[in-house]
Amino acid sequence: MLNDDGGFLTLVNGDSRIRFHAIWLRDNAWDAATRSADNGQRLIAVRDIPQKTTISAARLIRETLSVTFAPEDKTVDYDVAWLLQNAYDRKENISTGWTKSGVETWDSGLMTRIPVADFETVSTDPFELKNWLGQIARFGFGKLLNGPVEDLALMQVVDLFGYVRETNYGRHFEVRTEVNPTNLAYTGLGLQAHTDNPYRDPVPTIQVLYCLESSAAGGENMVVDGFRAAECLRAENEDWFNVLARYCAHFEYSGSDGVILQSRRPMIELAPDGELIGLRFNNRSTAALKDVPFDDLETYYAAYRRLGEIIDDPAMEVSFRLEPGESFLVDNRRVLHARKGYSGAGKRWFQGCYADMDSLHSKLAVLETEQLVATQ
Distance from CA of residue 278 to its chain's centroid? Predict the structure, then answer.
């Protein structure tokens, strides 16, 4: 159904009436002159579309919508399912701090269904790899069992989905007890749940930790869903949630020669439309707050304290012990990780590295597409 001037059309889908502008439809045409058949990228810019583009005719034939544009007199066919999947004419999310479809926040109740897979299985079975990566996308972390107990085996974990992000720590870092360490992670002290490297911009979005030796008592790993913690804070006091999202914190690291890393980002990071997209929380690396106005500083610290209390609540944590050949991966924008203290007796040797979620999402999308095609 066209409106009077052809500026948009309305697609009736059951009880729903979904509108699409002419300019949006023309920009999203999938004909050979507009999109590359090889990679789907646009071959034209918006400036190449006539400014007064309208719809002169539209016809629905089963699952295909055929649209003719003026003044080009160009007809383009659209898959109705694709249009519905990408429809933008919908009720806006009015609650700040919403999470996108497919994300499931959690607390300690997830202990009974930790996302876990077998290393050999996901290395050889694309279906099982898809399932494991899908759980990481959903919950923000995943565990692997029965991997090789050998130096740099963690690189094989990253090879399952993407690439290592090299930092000043190198392509990987060692986590052992050290004398006069440059980082508290290298001591036997327990660590508060935190996100890694908040002083980087952009922050590494994946961290992998791989166990090679674990004979010391204690040292259990813990993970906390930062998105759930933010939701709890918002439910308790929306002003506290908003103040941590509104003002930037400062983070800094300068523990190595020749390295001074600094960033300025909110502890709770939102997209412009209010989507919750990240959390930066690391008491060890938080520098002096310089961007919170005097009148809001006490409120900010009250919110900061309460967020930390929520994160530290045992009801929020999922804990597990890693044995040699086991590893876990966290979405470092979302899931905080921690370690309980361990004794000096025995040995504890982990290796860690960073990677990025865009590669994981890419691999997951490829596997989903391949398996969808295989079932058709």
Answer: 8
CA angle, residues 155, 156, 162, in degrees to nearest 5:
75
Q: 101 or 354: whose pLDDT is higher?
A: 354
Distances in Å between the alpha carbon of 1 and those of 15, 29, 123, 291? 15, 19, 50, 51
Residue 141 has pLDDT above 60, yes or no: yes
Residue 49: per-residue pLDDT: 97
* Helix, strand or coil, per DSSP, at residue 163: coil
**Roughly how many angstroms between the first and final C-alpha of the chain, as a whole number?**
32
- Reference 94, options 273, 228, 236; nearest CA is 273
**Could you give the domains of the chain?**
8-85 (3.30.2020.30), 108-367 (3.60.130.10)
| Rounded CA separation 268/277 (Å) | 8
Q: Quick check: helix, strand or coil at residue 220?
A: coil
Alpha-carbon span 68 to 237, nearest angstrom: 52
**Confidence tier at 180 by pLDDT (50, 70, 90):** very low
Query: How far is the C-alpha of 309 from the C-alpha of 281, rounded, in Å?
Result: 12
- Alpha helices in 22-160, H assignment, sequence order: 22-27, 80-85, 119-124, 126-139, 154-159
pLDDT in tens, 33-53: 999 999 989 999 999 999 999
Nearest Cα residue to 344 out of 182, 174, 219: 219
148/143 Cα distance (integer angstroms): 14
Q: Which residue has the tokens 């409106």?
A: 3
User: What whole-number distance in Å separates Cα of residue 3 and Cα of residue 220?
Assistant: 62
